[in-house]
Every structure is written in structure tokens, then in C-alpha cells.
Amino acid sequence: MSTASVPELKQISRVEAMRLGPGWSHSCHAMLYAANPGQLFGRIPMRFSVLMRFDGLLGFPGGFVDRRFWSLEDGLNRVLGLGLGCLRLTEADYLSSHLTEGPHRVVAHLYARQLTLEQLHAVEISAVHSRDHGLEVLGLVRVPLYTQKDRVGGFPNFLSNAFISTAKYQLLFALKVLNMMPEEKLAEALAAATEKQKKALEKLLPASS
């Protein structure tokens, strides 16, 4: 199996992002994670638990922030309060800003905070009782940061799902820069996911005559 490179968007600094004109929209999302000493089937290390949300597509908790009325952090915390209900992030949790591709000019800001596994579980419980649960937000999921012996189960299978906007790029970027997974392992998982998607598409398309 050929190894795909890990895709990246154009990264800019927070200062550069704040200098962008009114034609740019700002989205702020949060990656919450915790070290996980558990083992799947008693033999596959879990390593970390990372939370993402599902609303028909996979993404990180957060949303768009109107810079006319909110700072990045205040706007992010306002959205998190609707979907998680129990967490406030600060500028110290800021991780990155990326420019998105396409007709809409959006700069995507990502925040990351490491919690204890108990704190992460408390966030999951709180999210069920938040205002948007069952409406816009359909639940939180944990990212499986392991690959099973078949080289598809676990993280590769997860990457073959549909992600919203820049969420997949941000996940891969964060896992790399936070040293949660080596870049070569990220590339291997991405290649396996791409191959799985290709085979699934081939099954759906009629065979050429």
C-alpha cells in the first residue's frame, strides 16, 4: 500500500489572523483530549482519547465567531456553552490558525486542552444535558487513535468518515504537533482510509463495459 502524505492547509499566526479584513470569517473550535492508559482487547494501547462531535458530519465542538461583538475566546466559549455546557477555554489553549480553501474566506482557529480522563468523561456527560444536544449536536464521539492488525480497524476507519470543512486537517495537524501520533503513522492511516474509500466507491459504480 502506498503511503499518502498528510495534507495541510496554509497556516498563519494569530497576529496575522487578527489583521485580516472584514471580508474574512472566523471559526473557532476546540480539541479536548486526555491520556488514556487503557488497552483495547487487553493488548492494543489506547494512548489518548480525543473528543469530536457529530451533527451529520464529524467536527470539533465550536463554530463561527462574529468578531464585531466577541473576542475569539469569548465567542468560542459562548458556542461551547451551548454544545458542552461546562467548559471555558482561554488564549493559553490556542493552537493554530489556518486559511481555508474555496470561495468563502474563512480562517479556522483551533484550540486544544489536555484534560484528565475523568474530566473528559465529565464533559461527555455534561454535553448530553446541554441545550443543543439532540438538535444541532447529535453527540460526542471519541477518536480511536489505534490501528488494528488488519491495518484498517480503528483510526483508518475513522478517517474514512465524512468531516466538516477543515476538521480532518485540524485533527491530523493537532495529532502531529502535539506529538500524539508520529507523522508516518498518520500518513499510513490516511492511506488506508483513502484506499477503503476508493474500494467502496468502485463497488457503487457500475463496471465499465
UniProtKB/TrEMBL annotation:
GO terms for molecular function: snoRNA binding. The keyword Nucleus applies. It is found in: Nucleus. Keywords: Nucleus, RNA-binding. Key regulator of TP53BP1 required to stabilize TP53BP1 and regulate its recruitment to chromatin. In absence of DNA damage, interacts with the tandem Tudor-like domain of TP53BP1, masking the region that binds histone H4 dimethylated at 'Lys-20' (H4K20me2), thereby preventing TP53BP1 recruitment to chromatin and maintaining TP53BP1 localization to the nucleus. Belongs to the Nudix hydrolase family. TIRR subfamily. This is Tudor-interacting repair regulator protein. It comes from Carlito syrichta (Philippine tarsier).
